[in-house]
Amino acid sequence: MKPKILIAAVAVLAVSFFVVSAQRGFNFTEEFLANPSGNALTQVYGNLKHEYLNDVDDEKLTQGAIKGMIEALDDPFTYYVTPEDAVMRNEDQSGSFEGIGALLQILNQQTGKGVKIVNVYKDGPAWKAGIHPGDIFHKVDDTIVDDMTPTEVARIVRGPEGTNVYIEMIR
Length: 171
Hints:
The chain has helices at 3-23, 28-34, 36-51, 58-72, 83-94, 125-128, 150-157, and strands spanning 102-108, 113-120, 136-140, 143-144, 167-170. The chain is α+β, with helices and mostly antiparallel strands. It has two domains: 3-72, no CATH class; 98-170, PDZ domain (Pdz3 Domain, Roll), CATH 2.30.42.10. The strands form two sheets. It has a three-stranded antiparallel beta sheet with strand order 4-3-5, covered by helices on one side. A two-stranded antiparallel ribbon has the order 1-2. A hairpin with a 4-residue loop joins strand 1 and strand 2.
């Protein structure tokens, strides 16, 4: 299925879900707060906002909570697309930015850090450079990337088509 058709299909399904939910009287907020886990999450958020010594970044708390819920499922096929990842995917689909032609994955599932190659696309820049699945990113240009996430590494290896990037891998 083409990416634009897939996005349209997902959008139609999402709108349909909300219309049907509204007709049935589904109220997520009430259900969430009635659930002890939802109530606990709300209480922790409130405590952090009002009692924590430093200012709390709402966006970081929200992103962390979402990531934690998804990770708790322990399902390799369920993942969270961050707003930054969504922007990168849209750029990929529009053709305005190019990557190295490889699929990246987290190296260390426990820390979420480190990046390895899981697939190299034939005739892409990575393939032409001799990069193989299993290779581990170490350095991009002058930046050590051992403790970066796949999103962070993808962000720094991307650019307009024809952009040169120096990548040092561990095999």
